[in-house]
Amino acid sequence: MAEVELVHLTKYFGNVRAVEDVNLRVEDGEFVTLLGPSGCGKTTTLRCIAGLEEPTSGEIYIGGELVNDLSPRERNVAMVFQTWALYPHMKVFDNIAFPLKLRKLPKDEIKRRVREVAELLKIENLLDRMPRELSGGQQQRVALGRALVRQPNVFLMDEPLANLDAKLRVYMRAELKALQRRLGITTIYVTHDQVEAMTMSDRIALMNEGRLQQIGTPDEIYNHPANLFVAGFIGSPPMNFIEGDFVEEDSTAYVDCGAFRVDVTEFRDLIKKEASGNALVIGIRPEHIRLSREPAKTAISAEVYLVEPLGGETIVDLKVDETIFKVKEDADFRALPGEKVWMDFDRGKMHIFDKATERVIV
Question: 229 with 246, same domain?
Fold first, then answer.
């Protein structure tokens, strides 16, 4: 097993920047997910670690050793791709054994290691089958087996569950995490699916436009986003954003959002210290908005626009002037479009961002 460290990793394709100045340390045995939208640089970062792409600049260390000049094979990492790339003319046993045969290991050693991995993945009854005879989940396990049989120091996974149906993805998420925990292999996992990242990771490295936006535990990323991008990318439905201007008035301070005001008196000193100007963005997650049928001191009048029952919860779209707010309510919540309600923000869960820099203030 080994830790992985990226130091000022940068990769350009011609004049196109794919990865810019990424610094990341993955501890021995840790499960870290590179998360972000398509084209953000996460797969390129993974391929640089694997040795499949050469960095434009920066350093890659595996187990404390600089590996920039080492071939993929010399790095002792195993990579599982979105397409499982099984050899269609080979039985499952031979697919798993293939990397060991390339190393010219003794037949008894190959047989022992293949069967150990097959038992671990619960596919020992599939060893004599051809890939075309397997389900999607079974093919995924064979691909994992082929990677594990090499006994790598680092496991690299690039969207390995993307081609599975929704039900199987949920099952395989739990299986993959349990397997990684059992083996203790340092794992770097790439996905654009925030649910995969939140449920499987020890830490998440969120990327956008080639740059690392924030590194933290799932809880840190969700509850303490570093900027507007992180806040908007994580969460379903996403965080509600309201733009406004910071105003001081006697002993109070508020953000003037046009149709309503948000009291920020308790954050006044911090806003004055950290903000680059008066233009701010209020952020509040759907589960941190409270609805009422009766007006209250700090409540905002709103009109029910849409109600979406989802079984375990209800998503309510509220309209305030021309702004739509999404709110999470209990499953038994009932309201009709056009009905008037009042909403209030949980001030302890409210986020305030600098509109110009997009950095979080509160």
Answer: no
